[in-house]
Fold each of these.
Amino acid sequence: MPDEHQLSDLAREGEALEDALERIARPMVLDSRAESYLTALDELRALALAGALAGRPDAQLFVAVVANAATPKDVDLITGLIGQALAAFTERQQVDGQAVAWWVRGNVHLALGDLSAASRAWRRAAELDPGAELIEGLALANLAYGSFCETGDVEDSLALALECASSTLDRSDGRAAGLALVYAAYFQILAGRFERAEREINAAEAAFASEPTSPYEWPLAYAAQGALLAIRGQAVEADAAFERGVHLAREVDNRWYEAIVRTLRADHTVESDARRAHVDARWALRVFEEIGDTWFASTARRVRAEAALASGEVEAARLIAEGLLDQLTNPVERGRCLIVVSRSHLRAGDLAEAAQRADQAVRSLESTGATYLLVTALLLLAESDPMRAPDAIERARGLTTPDPAYTRLWDARPNLRVHVLGRQTVHVGDDLVEFRTTKAEQLVLLLAIAGGRGIDNERVGHALWPDGDPGKMPSNLSSAAYDARQALGPEAWRLHRASSQFWLDLDGAFVDLDDAMRRVRRADSDAARRAAIDDLRQEILPTLVSDRWVREANSRRDTYLAPLLRAD
């Protein structure tokens, strides 16, 4: 905390306190030294309420800055003083004073969690007096985040954050550079550029470490690190990073930053520890409401909905998230909230409503640059609406990069698993697929054995209906394909029929026959190779061996297996 000072130290001999405040206020406000008079807030408030500061706009801003450092905040006093100061500077046509007033107003909005308003205020300060360089350091870093809160444009906000990091590093301002790099890392995570996020986090830590004293903002770097590690599935390392962030926030006695760290911890570890997420989100929400931070209070409420959903409280999650939607104008945060609502409907079995909300999330996110969240929404849409799944999956694939974060996202889907060695089962996620007709099931099994390769319609027809009426074959194929897709649900997109061929898209799916052959090729020990060969010894679809296509599949397996058995 800043060193505390007494008001009596300010006035010269025979000088009134209000005159002393007006004389010294400007440099102290701009250098962030006014907060050190927090213990004198009652005396300063009394001066303001008595009208002693009327006509002294710099003194009014001084008192507003001191009051802004208090918890809870006297918002009416703070905004009233800033308004009076701005009116006085405007009447006197003091452009530099107006710029300072707008700058202070931006800082107040920041403390209240209204980062959009903060961004607008700081921009106004820069427009009024560009040469004053008010928008630098921490203010410039926060302007980048404020821009994101105002517009939801990830790329523009990232550019501002990186610009700030560059300029503040040039001035050896490690504290501001570190904060700007934390924001840049956050934007990189949203954009799905996780390696770059890791680079920004490392640079932020180095910038903070260059400061002679531990910056207040350092806990946020560990929060960003924890978020990235959690998204990539490194749970133990993520917990350690979040815990260090909480510890640092407590060391500098900053409950606001502790609340932010705990909100992010809850958000990114809710699936592994829903109970702790509940506790973190509730505690953080109390802090945000106490200090009047509306931005992070909304985030904490969304996280509470996530925690409720992870705990099986589906209806509670839906009510919390839907109640929050009307308050959200930022397209990224709105998209996140819509994802929670969609998941709640999906868990409740309402696929139509889940699909509608997932589609709204996609539309909210698609122009923001928040690619990672967009992929999340697209996969949710595919799971909720089988008819739209092919396009949604294809689009999500095009946005995905080979990073563990994306791998975990795709692995979390209810993927197709087909067993044909020694048995015949089809699962989507943990659910056994119940086919309405045997021909629909056999169509899926036939295509799974083909390993993703296309099979001519005529060949499929002869395999499933060897003695069928050729005239009815097109209708039979269409019926089997329709029934198969209905049974596969969220994985129906994998079954393709185009032109003269059928095929099953097996990217990311599991077929035990393909898996055993892959394990034979890649075995790194004799034991692993023998285990894979033993799996291949099992007959393919033993209950269907009388069917010609199954006999042919077993014949191909025997041909593949023979040299392996001789070598073994």
Amino acid sequence: MSTEQPRKNNGSKRRSKPKKPELKNKPMLDKRDLDVSGDGGAAAKGQNSKKKKRKEEDSTGKGSLSKMKLDETASPENSDQPMIDVQTEKEDPAKVSMLTDSYFADRSDIHELSKKAIANVLKLERMTEIQKGTYEAASKGKDVLGRARTGTGKTMAFLLPALERILDPASGYVPGEKIGVLVLSPTRELAIQIADQAQKLLTYHKKMSVQTIYGGSSITKDVSRFNKNLPSILVATPGRLLDHTENTKLSNGKSFKDVLNSTSLLVLDETDRLLDMGFRREIAKITACLPPKDERQTLLFSATIPDTIRQVLKENMRPNYVDVDCIGIGGGDGGAVASAHTNARVNQSHVVLPNMDRFVSSVIEIVTSAMQEKEDDNVKIVAFFPTARMVGFFAQLFNDALGIEVVELHSRKSQPYRNKASEKFRVAKQGILFTSDVSARGVDYPDVTKVIQFGLPESREQYIHRLGRTGRAGKTGRGLLVLAPYESKFLNQLKGLDIPVDDKTTNLLSCPPTAKNAKLLKDAMLKIGDGRECDKELTKSAKMAYSAFLGYYCGQIKRTHIQNKAEVVSIANNLSKLMGLDQPPSIMKRTIGKMGLKGVPGITIDNSEMQNSRQGRR
């Protein structure tokens, strides 16, 4: 998610912004320099980018959201996985339906200190289906393939049996002398969340510890903690872990690669996403550092089982592994059927914009309408956009131009910012999150009432994973897919899902915007442009959103009704006007080449880079 820099007046007159009460304790965060690309892959490789940083004002701590201001006093205690206590179970029959008749406290095969943490810290009483299904096999040392929908307590399904394995004296594990459990996570956000859950589980196991390593954090601090004490549970992203295996040497003379030679329990979480993000090679290198598969235990969790995962299964799991399928899928379908299943507790619908003129205004209309949907005002909305730059533009538009507070989260933000913004929304009782696909999987935001997807998702699977941010822990939720006319072809990819036309939203968009929304948009558009009174940061954000739109949709032509790249440029140029720009932004010649837009009519070339290089040669 992203934030903006504090404005400097420079003596020029500006239109006054809506007055917005400040939230206390606003953090000052770092921000990565911006580029024109979308969001893909950045979360996986962010640790390799060494970009300049500058101070910025945290947009998650500013703005007025009327009745929907983020509630910073909400307790974060139950914010990681389904946190289900006795009182909640009695009040919410839907939540009870995901639970089994197996109580943690009644099991004799769970350590008493683990039970104490489960009851007092995690506030859990009964096992969910995936937890009960995996526990016996995993706690006895068998390899397990676990399949479950998001929001069903999957993290505890591997953490608890993994902990019980290393607590068993027969395992030979001695705290601090080696790493007992290695958990691989596709993203930093998910790694942090898993580690937090693990830390709570270890509350009363005083000699045991948890450590998280991921790109964007200090490698020196990682090594310092390793030297002090090797963690019982290490949660890592593949890129950072591979970096340590190749380059880190501990103070006792051991290489980190040698340390992993004695780690006999591996967990691959969100394995399908690990592979989608291109980590197949890293996984192979990491597992080569571990004991052979016949001498270690592997727990693999994935929502879908495509052919690529079957190969990973073959390479890393013993032939007699236990398959725990809580999605209801047999084998051999390549994961297609699994990915067809969405949460039955989420009411899905879609709308196709009547025309492109509503592209920007529809976001305002739909979000403000969704803000009023819950009678008790506890509305918590996650809105997805196709690229990080589009997230940034709409978040800045809402926060700075409209005076409606939203939390902004995407891969172009610094890791400290992302951690704080993610936690802010996680513990909030109500609020709005504008995000890219960094929030599509794994991260648990409790009590999300609605997911809105603006624009074309990367795939059917990604649509389903985004939808999984609501309807979690047995609760109900709603999902709305908003498509432009040229994106309606995507509905063919959703065959088999119950996703009817949303009549309410269709009626909303069939009429002109309300006078209030029309004025909000008009006033906001006056802030965008190259005039002296315009907001330079908002204008810059609009220009970057334009470039990101071009880059994303040039790669999606076959999945839309767009005929060619010239039509993409035409749509983008029209969009630039709708975003308030006086004319389509110019793009660096090098970027045009990367997008494959050389010679395409309608593109404005920015020759400043060439002119600067000529001046340098003089």
Amino acid sequence: MEDKNMAERPMFTPNPEEPIAETPEAVSYLGVRLPKAQNAEGIFVPRKKNFTDFIYDEFALKLQRDIAVAFSLDQPLFIEGGTSIGKTRAIREMCSRLGWEVHYANLNYGADEGKLMGKPMPNTQRRTPEDPEYVYWLGKISSGLVPEEGKIKVIVLDEIGAAMPENLITLHEILDAMKNGEPVDLTEWGNGIVQIDPKRVRIVALTNPPGKGYFGRKPIDPALLRRFVYKKAPSELPTQTFSERTQSMFGLRPKVTETPLKEFLLSRDMRLLPEQLQEIPGIKGILDKYAEFHKGAKELVKNRQVGADQPQPFTFDDMEEPRRILDFIMAFYNGDINETFQTALRYYYANKLDSEVDKAKLEELIRHVEYIPPQNVSQRRGFERGTTTLTEARQETPEALMPEGDAWRKVLGENVEIAPLPSVVTPEVRRNLERLGFELRFIPKLDIGTVDDLKKKGVVRHLDELQERYPGWRRYESLSDTERGDHSVGRNLEDRYWRQVKDGDIDHPQLPGVWVAVESMPKLSYGKSYKKTPVSDKMGLSDRFNVSWSDAQAAIQKAKRGILSEAGLPSSLDVRMLETLEWNLLANREGWGATNTYEWTNTEYRRDGESCRVLAGHSVSGGAANVGWARPGGSFVSIGFRLAVVLSPIKRKQCDPLSYF
């Protein structure tokens, strides 16, 4: 029986440089995972070779992500946008990867109902009187409704704004049958009663904006539109998108755009159970605020304060919107109910609006739909962490008051030797460091073997032996779902870090036993800002987020002399970001893995001759165990960093910060 307190980990760690992640079983579009069809054969499956020139720019990636959300939730999607912005091609490209069939039906005024839904045809194979005189031919829509073993089908209803009224009436019945899991009666067209499997049929309606230079396009009846998730796409490509896409065509830009982590939306491995919803802290309060938001959003539309210049009438439906929000939360809840709920509101409400001014008005209402936990009570409790956890307490407790040996015994489950504090750390230096925002920590010398040991034993065996040696520092992949969500449970770095070490893409870590002064500010949740410190002023940075590794490294080198001088330390000491394994050990101790952001580390990851930097720590993807990597020149709103002063003289490889720009 499934543990109701389960907190699962997404199937992959988002990588800004790989916005589309493909496995043999699934494809993820900016984190939204869709299953591949078991049977990808047939003439209706688009061929991959036709999309070798597809450009995955920011516009296309966000469009495919939004399409994937509706597909993953079995929700019919209606996209209104200009011609040639890539609506149909984006869908076909997705289906070529997924092995899904595309059943394309153009609903313009010339579309015969029989071509769409099917009709009886003379049986050209009739040989005897017993053979039927007529056979029934499947239409372009009905062929997508009929279930076939192992196949997933997408029905594309193009130019729905130019459809005949009788064709639209038929759609009402089909959409209602899909939503309610009921069969649809196609007897009138000779296809009998068809039981539609909503998991294997997706419907997307496309149209150009009514009027606005598009001849023959009419607004859709609101009674039909409410049955779809409505996305208002631009009437033409944004100027920047056109420019970047053209440059990609000419080979001046990569075809795949590096995408900020904030644009990713991670599918859960398993949907929440209904009873788990009740255990999310603050859920009742946030639903009360949602009710106020929904009423306010409807008033904005009614009073023509938003959407006034959109020729397609729409509303925020009292029945459909809450049901869709519920489906979204169950599929994408990431441990932060505020972030997840507000993302859902932007998807189902703000996506209906055209102008940025209108979206800004709605955003003001969206921001108020939040749960503010009582002081000293974690927002992330509930089914993920039933009570205030040790990790939260660790971020609030001055660890310098605990003897280092006791602190590391709690983390590692084993005694470690603590070296004497270096003689340069006088009481005055210690006070200076604290004033600058640093706290003293000893990073212990651990027996982690060598790269040859790793190659000989393999990653799993090597990590299992480390766990036997240090029982509190557990192999991440051995943790249960509940333990993975409880960030007070100690964890080593995930297997894939050690695989890269084994393969030589990351240098084998060194833990010689070293005293450091590390910045003590908490690692913050997404959307917040790091506390400003004297060190931040010396680096000339207003915040630690949205700073590339290269810029951070340059700022550290700029501030290094001033930091050491003000602390009263020798100028020969090193000031740097933590190495990844150092970060992991301290994150287990300090609770840095409990928030949904990353921090840069000093560790290099080499990929195909290119130098990247390792980032660590997203709570949804493993917390202290989590690693990813990105180009050092990229800046992201969810990646911050912190400094450490290395107080023990050690030999380490130096790097030129300017070489990473």
